[in-house]
Amino acid sequence: MVINLKRKIIGFFVVGILGTLFHFAYDFFNRPVFLSFMLPIDESIFEHLKLIFFPTIIYMIFDLKINKENRKEYFISYIYNIFIANIITIVFFYTYYGMLGKNIDFVNIALYFIAILSIFINLSEVTSISKTKAIILGIIMLGSLILFTYYKPNIPFFVEFN
Questions:
Q1: Which of 55, 97, 154, 161 could disulfide-pair with 19, CB 3.0 to 4.6 Å?
Q2: What pTM does this model have?
């Protein structure tokens, strides 16, 4: 499975721009409850995972609609790489935060784009995950984003960083 470079570059920029817009949309639209499941409602690490998940899913739907070859493989690869990008975000954030003891906006922005870049760099990789497992992984990610938006555990991962 090989996705051409042009598709990867377009995907990186579309997801990056959508994620940036999503970051500010909740406050811009006066905090609409009906969109809170897909827009970050605070500055917690958890809420920022939505900036990876939803823009990439939107782009994936568009991409798979236009590019009809190997849809199953692309779908699996997108879901797997969204998961990996979220792990990268969590691990890198807590690593640099633990080392420096502070939250730095520039580093967070760079980290977001590194995570997005990881999706599109690895998108052409064949994974050993079945379509069923990819669907289950996608449902778990979506379900977690929705559930924990409204029912946040009282642990640092869900607490707003200022």
A1: 55
A2: 0.93
